[in-house]
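Bit of a strange request maybe. I'm writing a small parser for structure token strings and I need a real example to test against, not something I typed by hand. Could someone generate the tokens for this chain?
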Amino acid sequence: MDDTGNSSPICIADSPPQSQVKQTFTAASIELMLKRKDDKNEFTVMVNNLKKSSTAWSNFGFPARLDAGGIYQRIDGFTSCFQCKTTYTFQSDGTGSTKHLLRHICSKVQTSEGPLEKLFKLKKKAVVMLNSTDSTTMKDELTKWVCRSVRPFNIVSDAGLKDVLQTVLDLGKKYQDLNSTDLLVTPTTIGKNVHQLAERYRSLLQPLLTEQAENNCLCLCPDLWNDEYRKVNYLGLTAVFTNKNYELISIDLCCCEYQEIDKSGDSVLRAIRRQLDLYGLTPFMDKKKSYLLLIVVLIFSRP
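Reply from user aminoacidic:
Good idea to test on real output. This should exercise your parser:
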């Protein structure tokens, strides 16, 4: 069974009438027609209404062509992505495998997602099982890294590490013969990039937080704690709100050194205002409805 190719020609009848004209399609030609922009909308991707269990069909359908009667007729032998129109050959009798469809990475979805969408959205990935040899190799390399660098065992569960590894895998698909030294940067570069990346995300978050504040839907949760070993006080500030999809969103706005001379309500409020000013939120604190925030600050500022 060959269901992974994208160039096997399939001959279909061009209607009407079906007996007079024959046209040969390939996956490449169908993809080209689907991407073509015209007023006729001659080609489209139809939803698979057949009984289905694979999650691949949330992203894929069947290519179809508009006939003379104004009805879309399915082009058998192919399946296409709704978004990027990538087309693959597919067994039309219901026996085709969707494994290669699950591995599909939609380029249009990737390019249309902004930094905030990537930050909040949990992407569904196809489950890939490593064989025992590769699984052991990966396990050994992680163990050697943890022991050699004296890292905690739970670092392998860190979300940031998983994001970095996924980025490396994605780049590996793009570049041939990629070496680890080509990817890593110096500690100095990381230090400089912290400030640049922070400014970038602040600018992206500002309109989102402002919208929530204007609608009185933004909850700010401050926190104070101290490092007994270093004798340093810290201020943390978290924004919490519910988006239009009724999803609870929590964003850490800051984790900075608390530099006020004491922890009185006025001092804590002054420190918080400094951090909120980075997001353009201080005007909302000056409104009459900001008393609740002031009360929360006073509670957190008790010695």
